[in-house]
Amino acid sequence: MKKAYLLCLWLFSLIVTQVYAQEGRRVTGRVTSADDNQPLPGATIAIKGTTRGTNTDAEGRFSLAANTGDVLSVTFVGMKPQEVTVSAAATELTITLESDASTLNEVVAIGYGTARKKDLTGAVATLKTADIVNQPVVSATQAMQGKLAGVQITASGEPGSVPTVRIRGTGTLLAGADPLYVVDGVITDDIRNINPQDITSMDVLKDASATAIYGMRAANGVILVTTKRGQSGAVKVTYDGYVGFRQASRRVKMADSQQYIDFSNEALVRAGQQPVFTAGDIKANTNWFNAITRNALVHNHNISLSGGSEKSTYFLSGGYMFDDGILKGNGYRRLSLRASNDYQVSKSFKVGASLNLAQEDNENKPYSAFTSAYKQAPIVPVYNEDGSYGYTLRNNVANPLAQINYTNDHTKSLRLQGVLFAEWNITSDLRFRSNFAVENRSFNNRKYNPIYVVSGNQQNNTSQLTLRDDNASRWVWDNTLTYTKTFGEKHSLNALVGVTGERYKTSFLGGSRLNVPNNPDYWTLNLGTQATATNESSMGLERRLSYYSRVNYNYDDRYLLTATVRQDGSSKFPSSNRSSIFPSVGAAWQIANENFMKGQNLFSALKLRASWGQVGNDRIVPNAFLYTLSSNLDYQIDGQLAPGYTIQDIKDLNLRWEVTTEKDLGLEFGLLNNRLSGEVNYYDKLTKDALIYKPIDAIFGDNDSQYLTNAADIRNRGIEFGLNWNEKKGDFRYNVGVNFTINNNKIERVNGGLPIQAGSLGNGQITTQTAEGQPIGSFYVYQTNGIFKTQAELDAYPHISGAKVGDLRYVDTDGNGIINGNDRVYKGSYQPKYFFGLTGGISYRNFDLSVTAAGNLGNQIYNGKKAQRFGNENIEASVTNWWSPSNTTSNNPRPSNDVALASDYYIESGSYLRINNVSLGYNLPKTLTDSWKMQGIRVYVTAQNLVTFQKFSGFTPELPGRTLVNSTDQTAGTLSSGIELDAYPTPRTFLMGVTVNF
């Protein structure tokens, strides 16, 4: 760890020194459109034959160091490229670009390289800088929501949380379901530590033709993140900052005090007991959601510095994020620093380095406070008259505010990523690149549980301090050789071979003690009682070695072929299954470039592509195939006890990769000079040998009577559709986009035909079952058909023992006259059948407006809080109109304190449409900013999660479940997604900000 930090400190020093290394003659200019003479912001100006270049600002202006005779290559998406030679007298250039019928010349990242979008045979979706920075977000993955077909983003409202990302469905049960992230060559688990303002683009590799180059970890898709680097030219300083607040966007309306008393008393009477509540018990009419939530402050500040000379470029940035959660006491802070430097040693040799450092602080508060606020009686005051916390002994629910205030849970993490690279153009056709990346991450958690008494049901008699330190370090060394050659006028070849080595080490140390003083200055373990000490530690080591190659062939810009093969070796598997090969092949036909398409004006682009490939998923814990021993069994030998050992867990010595085979067929098109563009994709993904925990008889001696093995197949089959319209008329521009994905998730094989049950509510009820022919984690519950409204109905219909008039009527689905577990049926799942996004933008002169929306259709949510009700807990206001002898027309069941069976009565629609971002901006006039010696100023206001159209009665239909990698608890994670118990509500956010370019 120390060596890694010293290395990164040296890298940072190297980078900073380049700030002063500017040289060369300055050439300035302006790039405009030939259509309307308007400036083209973001156009790329590169000196041909070098890696030096820059981009135009908001007014289309640029400045860079160039010599007489240098050729400037000027490009802009949607425009024909142009080359301009720098003359001896040239100081101010005016460059005009003409519209290009094809917008497919855009360059995208493809893994160990780049390619023109029009040359791709795989499915790749791209998010550019403007799509990210125009939507202020904490994590850049949030900016993808609703913008890319086939990519589903589900975000929590908790500050600092990581959104769940699913690319073309969920294809695993226990191994990690998140995509692989690669940031400037650094493989990492997520990008929460990356400041969104530092990102240039995010390229999402979706099909096997695109992802196979990453082999063993690409089954869930790959997200390539490219960060900003320096451009030669004058020093550019940019500040972007915003401030605003978050508020709860939705509160569940609960019964008031009188309704609560009436319901609770009725439940007691119906159970043959005496009512216990009277009007005198109404000491308050508390809205518990208001008691624990707040309007939360959020602000973010970023500043960057970039520039360079012919030989050296640099980029430096710093950011600070402050985000208080809507739950009182909750909070997230992030401090980020980033630096990069590129140095052209000679015409053929280039080196560079980058460094990213992020520190995150989380003040954690329990999600369960939202559940307590849902259940706690409104007759209980937040505080008693003497200032103590209010309580009641007539239920077992905590005072939610006390629950928050007595929770001391702080997490601090430090994450450092560094990259060194060298690139050598051996010949004009052959390039070698070596990329060495390191990552170090530390995670420290401190929990203190003080002594307190709220009531007999909410107290803690002994203080406890728990400390946890997690550390991880990784290095990745990529070496690639790329050959690029054009033969004649029609044949183009790009071939790559490479080798990658990786080492990843983790360690954990934790401990706790009781009777630690209640003073943060003394929260150390040595001040606790030594006899109560507990401690634990662990460590893990992973090694990988990979060889790979890829060939791209292009014939006459009409016929394209891509072939990829990768051999991976991983220490996570037994020696018999440690290595595997992942191949792929893709082909494309540029129909628009055929001779028979010449002369027509309808299609400006038309490409048909198809691909097949295999990728893997090795996300299992290290050494999952090795037996572990326990020394808790002594054995008698010659009358004396000798230490004995026993096997703790049964292991599968043939544990192997999860392998996903994918077929993809796509059509990309552009019409009316690419004002209308889009694509349609069909995909079929089959994951074989998915990991599950398979039950075994207790006689085998396994601790939990189950073992990890490959015993499931999962298929995701679907269609993606995207359509975009871009129009420009004088000073007026607008764009509209829509994307729609249909995904069918289905279990093909599982556990020898035996379903896996999960989704526990904590009250003895199980809600989900993963079975062949059904989606992952399908709801498997009793079907209801109204309620019993008369005694005659009850007597004439099969019912459970003890049923009464006013109870739910369960359907006897097997027709045997008995209501039991065999009557449960499948009632949908949280896996959405459809998800979609809408985007729109308008700009007129200095004003711009953008809107994005996202949603799901066809999925279900189980209202766990509603179903989990125990005695004398509160109810939703919507069910206060319950059945009674005087209200026989109601469809709401009678009051009851009995544990409710898991049934479709608690299943609600998960479909929703959310307007997740609306931004309005204004660029101050150039004459004004010039007088202030500034290049540009933009002010903006933003509203996030402004409106949500939903049928679900809970806080939010977005429930970002997570896959608990190889967790032996199969009742959690993916198998139990869609059960709303402790969801953190999605907040509505209002921001105002400014971007200043100096």
Rg, nearest Å: 31 Å
CATH class of the domain at 1-100: Mainly Beta
| Full CATH superfamily name of the domain at 1-100 | Carboxypeptidase-like, regulatory domain
Strand elements, count: 54
Category by helix and strand content: mainly beta
- Overall 3D geometry? globular
**Whole-number average pLDDT?**
89
Architecture overview:
By secondary structure, the protein is mostly beta strands. It has a domain at 1-100: Sandwich (Immunoglobulin-like). It is built from ten helices and 54 strands. The strands form twelve sheets. The protein has a 22-stranded antiparallel β-barrel. It has a five-stranded mixed sheet with strand order 10-15-16-13-14. The two termini are 38 Å apart. The model is unreliable at 4-24 and 963-967 (pLDDT under 50).
Brief overview:
This protein is 7% helix and 48% strand. With 998 residues, the protein is mostly beta strands.
Features:
globular; mainly beta; five-stranded mixed sheet; 54 strands; 998 residues; Immunoglobulin-like; 10 helices
Which helices and strands appear, and what pairs or packs with what?
Blueprint: H1 2-17, E1 26-33, E2 44-47, E3 53-55, E4 61-65, E5 71-75, E6 82-85, E7 92-97, E8 107-109, E9 114-116, E10 124-128, H2 129-133, E11 151-154, E12 164-167, E13 180-183, E14 186-188, E15 199-205, H3 208-211, E16 222-227, E17 233-248, H4 257-270, H5 288-292, E18 296-308, E19 312-324, E20 331-344, E21 349-364, H6 368-375, H7 400-405, E22 408-425, E23 430-449, E24 452-455, E25 458-460, E26 464-487, E27 491-514, E28 534-555, E29 559-570, E30 579-590, E31 603-617, E32 629-630, E33 635-637, E34 640-642, E35 646-647, E36 658-671, E37 676-695, E38 706-729, E39 732-750, E40 756-760, E41 766-770, E42 778-781, E43 784-787, H8 791-796, E44 808-810, E45 825-826, E46 834-844, E47 847-857, E48 860-863, H9 864-867, E49 907-909, E50 912-923, H10 926-931, E51 936-944, E52 947-950, E53 979-980, E54 987-997
Parallel strand pairs: 1-7, 13-16, 48-53
Antiparallel strand pairs: 1-4, 2-3, 2-5, 5-6, 8-9, 10-15, 11-12, 13-14, 15-16, 17-18, 17-54, 18-19, 19-20, 20-21, 21-22, 22-23, 23-26, 24-25, 26-27, 27-28, 28-29, 29-30, 30-31, 31-36, 32-35, 33-34, 36-37, 37-38, 38-39, 39-46, 40-41, 41-42, 42-45, 43-44, 46-47, 47-50, 48-49, 50-51, 50-52, 51-54
